[in-house]
Amino acid sequence: MYDLLILTLLSSRTMSGYKLALILGSSVMPRRKISNGIIYPLLTKLEHKGYIQSRCGNSRNAKVYEITTAGKQYLQQLMQEPVSQDGNRDNIYCFKFRSFGYLNDQQKLEILQDYQAAIEQDLAVYDDILPHFSDLAQRFPAQGDYYKWVIRTVSLQQQLSHTKLTWVQDSLKQLNKEEK
């Protein structure tokens, strides 16, 4: 995951490791700090593989990193890989969306359709479990407050999924307009 995120950020401009850590932290999870123990070994690995290169960036001798041609090719490869359906899924898709400027329309379309299918699967799960929790709330009134908040949380997830679907549909329309 971090390879995609770092190369995506570096595809737009050169950055120091410190700046990359700040942006990655706020992009992956707001208010999350990416430690030096994570970012610098990743940068070293990417540099050894030839995907990025470093140079002295300013008067404080801070290293700045930039993506190489091999790194751009590797980023293209990462963009084509399927996204795992885990807790990082939305973050990975968001980073892929940020890299759309480097993709052709067919690649953009495939990623948007994959994301749409994943959201629709989530929505189907939420739609299936909501009646179950409503039934449990009626059968076990002593735990009514618990089930009330479970139902509200599932409802929140449904609403977020609908918002994401609207965004995907708008993006697909925009992509279709750009093709014409």
What profile does the largest beta sheet have? 3 strands, antiparallel
Low-confidence stretches: none
Give the strand line-up of the largest sheet: 1-3-2
Please report the number of helical segments: 7
Would you count the extended β strands for me? 3
What structural category do the secondary elements indicate?
Answer: mainly alpha
Q: What is the rounded distance between the termini?
A: 34 Å
Radius of gyration (CA) equals 21 Å
The level of helicity is over 70%
Order of SSEs: HEHHEEHHHH
Please state roughly what percent of the residues sit in beta strands, choosing from under 5%, 5-15%, 15-25%, 25-35%, 35-45% or over 45%.
5-15%
Q: Please tell me what the overall shape is.
A: globular
Mean pLDDT: 90
Walk me through the structure.
Helix 1 packs across helix 4. The longest helix has 36 residues, at 144-179. The protein contains seven helices and three strands. 71% of the residues lie in helices and 7% in strands. A hairpin with a 6-residue loop joins strand 2 and strand 3. It is globular and about 65 Å long. The protein has a three-stranded antiparallel beta sheet with strand order 1-3-2. The protein has helices at 2-10, 17-28, 36-48, 69-80, 89-98, 105-139, 144-179; strands at residues 15-16, 52-56, 63-67. With 180 residues, the chain is mostly helical.
